[in-house]
Specification:
Largest sheet: 7 strands, mixed
Distance between the termini: 63 Å
Number of domains: 2
CATH superfamily of the largest domain: Vaccinia Virus protein VP39
Order of helices and strands: HEEHEHEHEHEHEHHEEH
CATH topology of the largest domain: Rossmann fold
Structural class: alpha/beta
CATH class of the largest domain: Alpha Beta
CATH architecture of the largest domain: 3-Layer(aba) Sandwich
Strand content: 15-25%
Strand order of the largest sheet: 5-4-3-6-7-9-8
Number of helices: 9
Number of strands: 9
Helix content: 40-55%
Shape: globular
Length: 255
Amino acid sequence: MKKEEKVSHRLKYKIGRLFSRLLNFFLISKHLITDFPEPKPLPQIVKLGNQAFKSCSQNGQDIMAQTIFSEYSKSFPNKTGLYLELGGSDPIYGNNSYILETAHAWKGITIEWSKFMYDKFVLNRNNLCVNSDALKLDYNTMMLSALGTLECHYLSLDIDPAKQTYAALRRILCGSNIKPLFITFEHDKYRGGPLVQIAGAITLRLHGYTRLIKDVEALNFGEYEDWWVLSDKFDQDILQQLKDFARIVASLVRV
């Protein structure tokens, strides 16, 4: 190969590599912006009857968690709310634990696989966030170490894909001594069909849970989540009241 041809070949190679890197950077940046939007002005102020609630969740999961905990803690007036959040995504926008922490003084742990979102958590939140795979953690050890107890009043489950959310549910209920009072289980039925939802329902019923609402629907999406409560903590009248309230909250609050 002549000298001029070698130079031309190397130049084309370098230009190609530069173009490839610029293209990859553009696609990655676009992906991050698409998947992780900047927080909109929050919290929402939601009026339900004579009461006003703050919410940052997609469908008022934080309102429901605080309502259930308030009912449960009538017999335990000095108890602090405790949450375990698997898949936190943005630390504020659409987040299920932000209002619980900032407005109601809950303590808790968020497990977030994305380093990008973990870094945002560290900057914006005080409660613990763990940058890890939710399916590889020892939850008994982690809860005892971080919170000093295995008690949990709200378990938020949202890992992609939905089958991983189901695996995380089983890891908590079958592989630890944690029995959350309230669980929001994201099954993403709108894009993956009903199998994860059905499997989750069977597991939850076997562990003593009652479904408060089925197929919560998010703004601009479809049916994606069910809400469950530990049955033996409330009498039937209270359970029915919680079911009625869940339907109202999920229909009115949409981020």
